[in-house]
Structure formats: structure tokens, C-alpha cells
Amino acid sequence: MNRSLGGLLSVFLPLSFLTIGGGQAILAEVQRQVVGVHHWMSREEFLQIFAISRMAPGPGSLFITLIGWHVAGVAGAVAATVAIFGPTALLTYVIAGFWSRYENAPWQKALEAGLKPVAAGMILASVYVLITSLSGAPWTQAIALIATATLVASRIHPIMVLSGGALCFLAAHMLFGV
Fold it and tell me: How many CB atoms lie within 10 A of CB 62?
């Protein structure tokens, strides 16, 4: 096995167990590993791959497949995908039977309550990574922050927030030529 496939496996196998709250929960650590530690891509390339994955239907961890493809082609895409989904799928299968046997047990409720803030914190760290990765004028970060706050604080449909952000971008481009 070549070094890039081994590197992909060494990064994504352990991260698979941290996907509490979905694939977005590990985004900050994936960005740190892919951009900062292994230098497989730049911050801008990472952001582009993430944006492409969000436009495609499928699981939130699809960006891992695209990173694997970027690093080592088709073999990298397969290795990264198996590394991120395989261990979690196996763990879920094993735990599901155990979990259903002890439904509504006090320890189970406590564990669920304890994992919610962990997942929320990991997702907020991911938002921070995405916003700080935005290049260009500071207003792009402001639009992203306002959109995030709007989504968190209201029940406005995400398509409306996305449309509003696009309109803000177009207005800034037309007014300031940015």
C-alpha cells in the first residue's frame, strides 16, 4: 500500500469514531490534518471540496471521499470512504442491539444528554474553520456569520438564507466591484 493510502487510513479510521452529530462534527480536525499536518491541499482547496460535497446529495461525510480522490485518485476515494464509514457502521450495528435492550435506562439518558453538547461544540468548531477559511473581503465572513446566526436563531428555510447570502454577495460585487 502506498504512503498516501496509508496516510488516508491513519487519518480517517480514528476520526470515524468521532462523528458524533454527523460528518460536520469532525470538519475542524479533518481540515487540520489535511491542510496543516499532511499538506495534501491548501485551505482554499479544502473549502472548495467541502462546498462541492454540500451541493451533492448524500451523507455529510461525502467530503472525505473527495479528499481521498484528491490525494490518491480512485483508490484514495475508496480507502477514505471505507475508513470513515466502515468503523462507524460496524460500531452502530454492535451498539444498536445493546442500546435497544436497555431503552430508557438512566445511564442511557445521561449519555445522550452528555453527548449533545459535545456534538454541538464540534459542529461550532467546524463552522469556525469554514468561516476562517474564507478568502477575500471581510464582508464574505460577515455574510457567513449572519447566515449561520440566522439559521441557528430562526426557523427560516435554509434555501431562503442561501438566497439572501447570494443576493448580498451580488450586491457587494455590483456596488464595490469585489
Answer: 20
Going by C-beta distance under 8 Å and a sequence separation of 6 or more, which residues neighbour residue 25?
Answer: 18, 19, 119, 122, 123, 126
- Cα separation of 3 and 66, whole Å? 18
Residues 55/154, Cβ–Cβ less than 8 Å: no
135 backbone φψ class: left, alpha, beta (φ>0; ψ -120 to 50): beta
- The beta strands (E) that lie in 23-134 are given as none
Closest Cα partner for 29 from 154, 158, 163, 123? Answer: 123
- Distance, in Å, from the CA atom of 130 to the CA atom of 119, rounded to the nearest integer, reads 17
Nearest to 120 by CA among 52, 6, 20: 20
4-45 residue pLDDT tens: 899 999 999 999 988 866 777 888 899 999 999 999 999 989
- One-letter amino acid for residue 164 of the chain: G
> Scanning the structure block, which residue is given the C-alpha cell 476520526?
15
pTM for the full predicted model: 0.68
